[in-house]
Design brief:
3-stranded antiparallel sheet; single chain; 7 helices
Length: 166
């Protein structure tokens, strides 16, 4: 049913956006399970994404970014290092600290996830008419701009804006 400006209910749209978010999580979960290096948990994937954006971070800073306790972050990094996805180095600033960096294999894994995610989403988008696809791209761009105004990151993790996609 076509919507007009007077029939838009913010709560209804919020619920629809949450439903789509859950669908995307389900689609992306397939990629996490099918990783060439073995299944990767959501917390591991979040840690890899945080590390991708920083050139070496100590465990405390990583824990803050993830909202996790130091002991949990240390065990998480142990698992990531054992899988060859991160590397630990002595800190250049403090001999008592260790820095964690994304390994080449970790970067490759993130690239594979993003490519898988893009293919999964593209499969769904191909079922949409050009007009609906353009409307979605415009809506996603407006959503990102609104998110930036309320203090959330304006850019997607890989730096693409919806306008770049459309």
């Amino acid at each position: 049913m076509p919507r007009n400006l007077h029939s838009v209910d913010h709560e209804e749209v919020a619920h629809a956006a949450c439903a789509v978010s859950e669908l995307l999580q389900m689609l992306w979960g397939r990629g996490q399970e099918a990783a060439p290096s073995g299944p990767v948990s959501s917390s591991q994937l979040r840690a890899l994404t945080v590390l991708e954006g920083q050139d070496g971070v100590n465990l405390r800073a990583l824990g803050e970014a993830l909202g996790s306790r130091p002991s949990s972050v240390s065990r998480l990094c142990d698992r990531l290092e054992a899988a060859g996805l991160v590397e630990r180095y002595p800190s250049a600033i403090s001999r008592r600290e260790i820095e964690v960096r994304l390994s080449r294999r970790g970067r490759a894994l993130l690239d594979e996830f993003r490519a898988f995610r893009a293919r999964e989403v593209e499969t769904v988008l191909q079922e949409m008419s050009p007009a609906k696809l353009a409307a979605l791209a415009e809506g996603l761009e407006a959503f990102q701009a609104a998110a930036a105004r309320v203090g959330l990151p304006a850019e997607a993790a890989n730096g693409q804006r919806p306008a770049d996609i459309a």
